[in-house]
Amino acid sequence: MAMRMDPLTVEVVELIGSVVARYHEEYERAAAEHALTGAQARVLGLLSLEPVAMRKIARKLKCEPSNVTGIIDRLEARGLVERRPDPADRRVKLAAPTEEGRRMAAALRDSLDFAREPLAELSSEERTVLRDLLRRMLGQ
Asked: Which listed residue, 25, 26, 32, 79, has the most CB atoms within 10 A of its CB?
């Protein structure tokens, strides 16, 4: 028999759901302002940190490698991403942002009000506690 959640846990779960929904809405809006889908924006953001192998992108986004190929194709057609061989293993293709792709990823990050507004209300110590709690929840 499943245990019932206490009212506090129910409220926390609902609040997390609201945060996630707001994040996705803002991400989709910011992506649309740059004529990107949410998935394209997420891939571009991921690549702006470092070139990433296609399979690793699929694992990170929890989607099929064929979906990632389509996303990369569309980003590449717009001149935002390029494919290059992995220096460590020439058989592996890395996706990397072009200079324009890096600029677009930075513009996307800047247009996400979600992180700025609510988090700005928290002190540095509160943001640190929140980060550490979220990491614990995710087992990191």
From this structure: 26
